[in-house]
């Protein structure tokens, strides 16, 4: 949700409906800044811009990407995927009349696009035959898509591109990036026919992102000498004339910055935990040459997730954030950077009389074989956990692409917690929780650190009596599914059961086939097995052998362009008769079903599997709060 000049834009869901409804309300003159209002005036008529439920009725699968309004608020554009193959058809509709304004919808886009300030020029991205976003096109509304002009073509097959609009609404950006290298081009949003310019030239293994303010850029940059990134400032007239504003720090990962007219916020990680630090900028809009003492925004729980929300007008002093933990539902928090005042604007509702005081969350540290300390986040019901080694547990991990697997809240998870099952996350190397070196220590020829970190976390939880091998279940999705496939081969004795969601289990075969989507760009994550050292290393962790495997549930999607399965091989070689189930969704892809209730049905299959293998089919939900009559969670 957000306020943009004349309107308050938001999405909502309706009881019994699968998908979101995109809406807005007009703001009265002098309504003030976004978060100075306690609530939107509901006496002002609501305008429905897009009801995804109505659009989805004609399709078995439906997903929206990139919904946005034109600068003059007359048009809305969105991409829709009706098969699960992640190719989006671009549609544009006139607000009020509902009239489709494109002469024909534009198929096979990447699902991101941006309006120029003339309100009739729309830039969008298309994919190549291997699903790589590789071209940016300029479309003028009212003309045929056949007349669209390609304004940028990324020739390097290891790079993906995307387009966006700056918060100042002055510039459009084309961002091009591989796994380790990136660059950015910019264009005045007032001059859609103008020349795109490069901010900083592309250099191998240098990544950067850009924010603009006044006549200068803030550039967050990472390279080999600055693996955790530092913040630069440079004049737009010569972006290469950079100065350091926030220097590189070994113990702090700078993830990104959020710029507004008078403030700069750095989102950082220390010891794996996120924080936001606020800096005051010169009031005249001039380019700062140094930053004063920053003010951290503090949170008290031992493990949590913090993210930057959708921001309002560039001149607003209000920073919108989202905060949650394994026991705290998502909170939308507005922080006034001028006064330090903090207000919780919205709390995710949880059905069933949920009482967060009945749950405890902890942060533990396991020791990997090489001595590296690996963080673990966990949550349990305090009145149900015995902590004597007999508690059932579900341990989750990801560990790839420098993507953090942060301890977030999910109300559906209460269905497990309220039966006495502990939930934990192993923040293994290869992810982004502990800085760039943490990621690099879990990729290429060090990928096995991801797997041994996970095993170390499992052993730590067993040794400290949070669970036992007979009660420990594990799960991972996509690249996290690769981790599950590896660890059940390395230590099948350590786990009771494993859930592998659309698992990337045959990394070697995939990386050898350049005709498969994502292969070339993924070489910078896994290595190119056409080189012998990478081939031998990948082969060493893809082995399926004669073993007494734990119970396994493997989930797949027919339209998934990413993964194959290894179920047949396990079925052939295993030495026991534990459950081995393959569920293939014939109407979805890598991201499973798109409807919120359909997703819950798949989750119900996973939970039913866990309860069965743990012998807990008859264990009832224990209500979390005094008002609960039928149990907690949105089951």
UniProtKB/TrEMBL annotation:
GO terms for molecular function: serine-type endopeptidase activity. Residues 4-347 form the Peptidase S9A N-terminal domain. It comes from the Eukaryota. Its EC number is 3.4.21.-. Residues 408-616 form the Peptidase S9 prolyl oligopeptidase catalytic domain. Signal peptide: none annotated. GO terms for biological process: proteolysis. Keywords: Hydrolase, Protease, Serine protease. Coiled coil: none annotated. PANTHER family: PROLYL ENDOPEPTIDASE-LIKE (PTHR11757:SF19), PROTEASE FAMILY S9A OLIGOPEPTIDASE (PTHR11757). Serine peptidase whose precise substrate specificity remains unclear. Does not cleave peptides after a arginine or lysine residue. Regulates trans-Golgi network morphology and sorting by regulating the membrane binding of the AP-1 complex. May play a role in the regulation of synaptic vesicle exocytosis. Belongs to the peptidase S9A family. This is Prolyl endopeptidase. It comes from Chlorella variabilis.
């Amino acid at each position: 949700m957000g306020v943009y000049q004349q309107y308050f834009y938001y999405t909502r869901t309706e009881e019994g409906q699968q998908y979101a409804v995109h809406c807005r309300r007009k703001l009265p003159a002098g309504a003030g800044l976004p978060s100075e209002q306690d609530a939107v005036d509901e006496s002002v008529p609501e305008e429905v811009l897009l009801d995804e439920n109505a659009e989805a009725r004609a399709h078995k699968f439906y997903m929206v990407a990139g919904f946005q309004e034109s600068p003059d608020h007359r048009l809305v554009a969105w991409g829709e995927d009706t098969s699960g193959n992640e190719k989006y058809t671009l549609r544009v509709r006139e607000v009020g009349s509902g009239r489709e304004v494109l002469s024909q919808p534009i198929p096979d886009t990447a699902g991101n696009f941006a309006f120029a300030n003339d309100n009739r020029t729309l830039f969008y991205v298309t994919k190549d035959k291997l699903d790589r976003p590789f071209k940016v096109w300029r479309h003028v509304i009212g003309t045929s898509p056949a007349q669209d002009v390609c304004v940028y073509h990324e020739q390097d097959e290891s790079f993906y591109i995307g387009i966006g609009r700056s918060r100042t609404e002055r510039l459009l950006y084309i961002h091009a990036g591989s796994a380790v290298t990136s660059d950015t081009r910019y264009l005045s949003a007032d001059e859609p026919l103008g020349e795109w310019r490069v901010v900083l030239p592309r250099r191998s293994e240098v990544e950067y992102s850009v924010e603009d303010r006044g006549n200068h850029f803030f550039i967050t940059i990472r390279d080999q000498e600055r693996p955790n990134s530092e913040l630069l400032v440079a004049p737009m007239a010569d972006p290469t004339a950079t100065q350091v504003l926030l220097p590189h720090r070994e113990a702090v990962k700078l993830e990104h910055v959020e710029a507004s007219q008078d403030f700069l916020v750095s989102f950082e990680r220390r010891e794996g935990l996120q924080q936001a630090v606020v800096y005051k900028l010169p009031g005249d809009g001039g380019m700062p040459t140094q930053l004063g003492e920053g003010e951290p925004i503090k949170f008290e729980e031992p493990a949590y997730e913090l993210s930057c929300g959708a921001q309002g007008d560039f001149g607003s002093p209000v920073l919108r954030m989202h905060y949650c933990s394994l026991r705290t539902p998502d909170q939308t928090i507005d922080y006034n950077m001028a006064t330090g005042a903090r207000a919780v604007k919205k709390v995710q509702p949880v059905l069933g009389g949920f009482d967060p005081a009945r749950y405890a969350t902890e942060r533990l540290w396991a020791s990997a074989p090489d001595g590296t300390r690996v963080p673990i986040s966990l949550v349990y019901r305090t009145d149900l956990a015995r902590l004597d080694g007999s508690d059932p547990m579900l341990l989750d991990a990801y560990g790839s692409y420098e993507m953090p697997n942060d301890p977030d809240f999910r109300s559906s998870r209460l269905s497990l917690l309220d039966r006495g099952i502990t939930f934990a996350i192993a923040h293994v190397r290869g992810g982004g929780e502990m800085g760039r070196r943490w990621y690099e220590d879990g990729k290429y020829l060090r990928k096995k650190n991801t797997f041994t970190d996970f095993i170390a976390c499992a052993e730590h939880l067993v040794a400290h009596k949070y669970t036992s091998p007979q009660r420990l279940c594990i799960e991972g999705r996509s690249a996290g599914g690769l981790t599950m496939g590896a660890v059940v081969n390395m230590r099948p004795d350590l786990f009771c059961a494993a859930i592998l969601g659309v698992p990337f289990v045959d990394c070697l075969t995939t990386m050898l086939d350049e005709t498969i989507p994502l292969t070339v760009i993924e070489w910078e994550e896994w290595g190119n097995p056409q080189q012998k050292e990478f081939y031998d290393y990948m082969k060493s962790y893809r082995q399926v052998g004669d073993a007494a495997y734990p119970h396994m549930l493997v989930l797949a999607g027919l339209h998934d362009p990413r993964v194959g399965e290894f179920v047949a091989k396990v079925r052939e070689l295993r030495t026991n008769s534990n459950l081995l189930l393959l569920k293939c969704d014939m109407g979805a892809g890598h991201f499973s079903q798109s409807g919120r209730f359909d997703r819950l049905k798949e989750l119900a299959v996973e939970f039913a599997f866990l309860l069965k293998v743990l012998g807990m089919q008859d264990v009832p939900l224990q209500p979390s709060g005094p008002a609960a009559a039928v149990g907690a969670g949105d089951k």
